[in-house]
Amino acid sequence: MKIVLLGPPGAGKGTQAQRLVEKYGIVQLSTGDMLRAAVAAQTPIGLKAKAVMDAGGLVSDEIVVGIVSDRIEEPDCARGFILDGFPRTVAQAEALDRLLQEKGTALDAVVEFVVDEGILLSRMENRVKETLAAGGEVRKDDNPEAFKTRLEAYRSQTAPLSEFYAASGRLKTVDGMQSIEAVAAELDAVLAGVVAA
Ligand code: ADP
Question: Would the pTM of this model clear 0.90, i.e. be above it?
């Protein structure tokens, strides 16, 4: 099972991805998490990516495609994976198709979380509050200014992916404005159709 989850920051992709990991026994590949780990470890990629990430911009296609291409070769990806936060540009989506084609495989589903933009900022602010309450560390890009830049990057560079995947008949959608449980149920129904197909 190879799935892409699409949707703006705060749409709930990460929350649902974690549940799918348990349900299907596949791994979650979040390019945001991988890049944050590279920043924390101060690897050459992390050092390059830090400033643009903190400001809410997109890291170069070359860097993220390189990371994903290495990662999906790992043995734990053999049963499948959920991509969360990748692809984020049409160039990344084309690179992903090529990578999978070279391995003789393809995506099983692309699911877009459809949400009203108005709710996203407050979801981010809630995440910050919950993280602080739990004694955790808040992401550097979880502040109103960087969040605005993230939304703009989403609108201009990532939103066109819906059309890209719809054009090849691969796009499914779920209503991300519902409760976590209701989104989970809708997502299960969508994926059940994919598995059965
Ligand atoms: P969000 O919650 O905004 O969706 P992520 O954790 O997915 O955030 O990503 C955080 C940051 O990491 C992005 O704002 C961007 O700088 C960088 N990033 C993550 N994935 C990609 C990608 N596929 N292409 C370019 N930059 C990326």
Answer: yes
The total of other beta-carbon atoms located within 10 Å of residue 151's CB is: 18
Nearest of 79, 75, 118, 72 to residue 97 by alpha carbon: 72
**52-56, 85-89, 189-193: lowest mean pLDDT where?**
189-193
Query: Cα separation of 129 and 123, whole Å?
Result: 10
Report the pocket of ligand 1 as residue ranges, CB < 6 Å. 9, 30-32, 35, 52-53, 56-59, 64, 85-86, 88, 92, 141, 150
Of these residues, 48, 71, 123, 139, which one is catalytic? 139
**Residue 189 phi, psi (nearest 5):** -65, -45
Give, rounded to a whole angstrom, the gap between the first and last alpha carbons of the chain: 12
pLDDT of 54: 97
Q: Which position among 13, 36, 50, 172 bears the catalytic label? A: 13
Would you call 120 exposed, middle or buried from its count of C-beta atoms within 10 A (0-12, 13-18, 19+)?
buried
What pLDDT sits at residue 197?
64
Cβ(80)–Cβ(1) under 8 Å?
yes
